[in-house]
Amino acid sequence: MSYPEATYAGGEGEISARYRPAGTAPDLRTRTGGSTHYLATTETTHGEFGLYRIDMAPRAGGPATHFHRTISESFFVLDGTVRIYDGDRWADTTAGDFLYVPQGGLHAFRNDSDEPASMLLLFTPGAPREEYFEKVSQMADRPEEERAEFFVKHDTYWTD
To answer: Model pTM?
Structure first.
């Protein structure tokens, strides 16, 4: 395997890095008391990847088993206990634990503990996932056809 084609053709480099201090307010607050920080979006990475920090409240639950056709996802636990499904079994993961899920891989995650939990969520290639996270909770009250269209638009296929 080799390096990909160059995307920068300049000879001197440029000032283009983006800094986000740890104390930056979350981009999204969830109805369960958690929050999501959009650390790097598909827009800021020009479609290379997306990276979010997901902070879950105690007993926040999480999505049911699903898969994606176009993106892979990786989970890195920062704090607390995140229950992660790898397509075969559930595991109580803690700080430093990591799971990679390729396209088509069944997975799910949740916080079933009595303590908050936090993890990094990386997906590649980049995709406009912000709308998904911002609107998914509204889908519960929508007609079945509208829900199905929303999930297909956001490359999410449920198995449960």
So the answer is: 0.91
H or E element at residue 50: strand 50-56
HSE-up (13 A, CA, CB side) for residue 118: 9
Q: Is residue 15 part of a domain?
A: no
Helices within the chain (DSSP H only): 130-135, 144-153
**Is residue 41 helix, strand or coil?**
coil
The H or E element spanning position 124 is strand 117-124
Q: Dihedrals φ, ψ of 136, to 5°?
A: -60, -35
> Percentage of the chain with pLDDT > 90?
79
The count of domains in the chain is 1
CB 39 within 8 A of CB 20: yes
In a domain, 68, yes or no: yes
Helices (H), 2-126: none
Find out whether 73 and 83 touch, Cβ atoms under 8 Å: no
